[in-house]
Design brief:
The chain is 35% helix and 14% strand. With 273 residues, the chain is of the alpha/beta class. It has a single domain, classed as Alpha-Beta Complex (sialyltransferase cstii, chain A), CATH 3.90.1480.
């Protein structure tokens, strides 16, 4: 799987949009809207890092933290944080309420641009910007990964996040997902039996981790509302929101279980305490 993934999608080089894989005056094709394209001006190009900060198997061990309610009371925090590199999804909270179960180390955290719209009203004034920067400060010096080129509406919001964090001299760096990598990744998992329109952030991060990490450990991946012992679970470890219609999480989970059985990843579905 690892070599297939690297061959199809070249994650170690193409995970992010960079100045070396995306030139000025070329066109970016959005990965979730096939009619949408964007011309890369010099101004846009300057927003990208010169080259990718990651390479093939850069990190000996990584954890990818899903947000399942299964993590509540798991006591997995220390184990999660012991990896060289920790991926987290969708700005999930890591404050003292949750640290025993999910840890608080973060090296890359994904952010859905809709958060900017819904929670911070497009960052349109100083108060909102300050609240936003304060909320993100708990992730230390992590990379904030945003799908700027998935849907047209993501672009300006993702750029606004980058500008705001730079304006407030935040330690965080905003990086943008490469739509070519996303397209290749969706196609790869479709051909491997995942029947969703788009793969979830969790499967995307697990795939990225297989490119840039030696060992990959997954926590909090569990798409069901009861655990193995039939105890009812909330949707996420921090709330009970509903899952997204676009994703096919049980399909994805079956795939992750297969990778676990084959020894390609370690999928943790028990408590750690």
């Amino acid at each position: 799987y690892r070599s297939e993934l690297e061959a199809c999608c070249n994650g170690s080089q193409n995970l992010l949009v960079t100045q070396s894989n995306t030139r000025v005056n070329t066109t970016i094709q959005y990965d979730a809207e096939n009619k949408s394209k964007l011309n890369v001006t010099t101004e846009i190009w300057r927003k990208f890092p010169q080259k990718t900060p990651f390479g093939y198997k850069t990190f000996p061990s990584c954890t990818v933290v899903g947000n399942s309610g299964l993590l509540k009371g798991s006591g997995c925090g220390k184990q999660i944080d012991s990896a060289d590199f920790v991926f987290r999804c969708n700005m999930a909270p890591i404050d003292e309420r949750f640290v025993a179960d999910v840890g608080n180390k973060a090296n890359l955290v994904t952010m859905n641009p809709s958060i900017v719209r819904d929670r911070y009203l497009g960052l349109k004034n100083t108060t909102l910007k300050e609240r936003f920067v304060a909320a993100l400060s708990r992730y230390g010096g992590a990379y904030v990964w945003m799908p700027a080129f998935s849907f047209k509406m993501c672009t300006s919001r993702s750029f606004a996040v980058q500008t705001t964090l730079q304006e407030y001299k935040s330690k965080l760096s905003v990086v943008f997902g490469n739509p070519q990598f996303m397209l290749a990744m969706n196609k790869y998992w479709k051909s491997n039996g995942v029947k969703a329109r788009r793969i979830s952030t969790g499967l995307f991060l697990a795939s990225a981790a297989l490119s840039i990490c030696g060992e990959v450990h997954l926590y909090g991946f569990w798409p069901f509302h009861v655990d193995k012992h039939n105890v009812t679970l909330t949707e996420h470890y921090y709330d009970n929101a509903l899952p997204h219609k676009m994703h096919k999480l049980p399909d994805e989970f079956a795939k992750l279980q297969q990778l676990h059985r084959e020894g390609i990843i370690q999928l943790r579905t028990d408590s750690c305490s």
